[in-house]
Amino acid sequence: xxxxxxxxxxxxxxxxxxxxxxxxxxxxxxxxxxxxxxxxxxxxxxxxxxxxxxxxxxxxxxxxxxxxxxxxxxxxxxxxxxxxxxxxxxxxxxxxxxxxxxxxxxxxxxxxxxxxxxxxxxxx
Length: 124
Description:
InterPro entries: YeaO-like (IPR052552)
Helix content: 40-55%
Protein name: DUF488 domain-containing protein
Order of helices and strands: EEEHHHEH
Radius of gyration: 13 Å
Shape: globular
Oligomer: single chain
């Protein structure tokens, strides 16, 4: 992942290095007030489908298959516009993908950052 696209928990303190802060969860983070999130955007259309989220259940043993399925979803029309918007943001500024997930390394934000970085280098 390039330094231009990073992932963090939405509950962490903001940083001047964050750039654009975009929440990429489908569901609003539990216990967080909207004014405390310090978001530029909430882009839930780029999040995994509810069915995929439920199947995964944040089980690290399922992460490889979750990653494969989520990357397939990102190619679908339902996610394409939101993903393109994130690519546009990353082209102009640093981008921090925010998630409420405790294990950021095994989250949709990590998969999304990896996917976006690959597209960023591919020039799409």
